[in-house]
Design a protein that fits this description.
about 110 residues, mainly alpha, about 0% strand
Length: about 110
């Protein structure tokens, strides 16, 4: 979402095609390693499957996704519009975002 909005604003792509392929390869490889190395628990193996009409993303997950997206867009546009001086001023905001992500993972 942020890449799309940045491209729409600046009229140029922030990444070249080969860079996008490398990012995709690395992100997919790390996710597959994380899934492959985690051993399933007995509780997980014995639970009944979810129904076909059951939502994949819960309400809480959707609120977290939307909240983080809005926050990232605010920081991105702050840096985009105010330049490098804003980047140094926004470093505290970016550090707080990292803290928020760490807190979100612990929940």
């Amino acid at each position: 979402m942020t890449v799309t909005l940045t491209c729409a604003h600046s009229q140029e792509s922030p990444l070249k095609a080969i860079q996008m392929l490398w990012v995709n390869l690395i992100m997919d490889a790390l996710a597959s390693l994380a899934l492959a190395t985690e051993r399933p628990t007995e509780e997980l193996l014995e639970r009944k499957p979810y129904g076909r009409t059951k939502a994949l993303i819960s309400r809480r997950m959707m609120l977290n996704i939307l909240g983080h997206s809005v926050y990232q867009l605010i920081v991105l546009f702050c840096i985009l519009y105010f330049g490098e001086s804003a980047a140094t001023r926004c470093s505290t905001v970016i550090k707080s975002f990292d803290s928020a992500q760490a807190l979100d993972r612990s929940i």
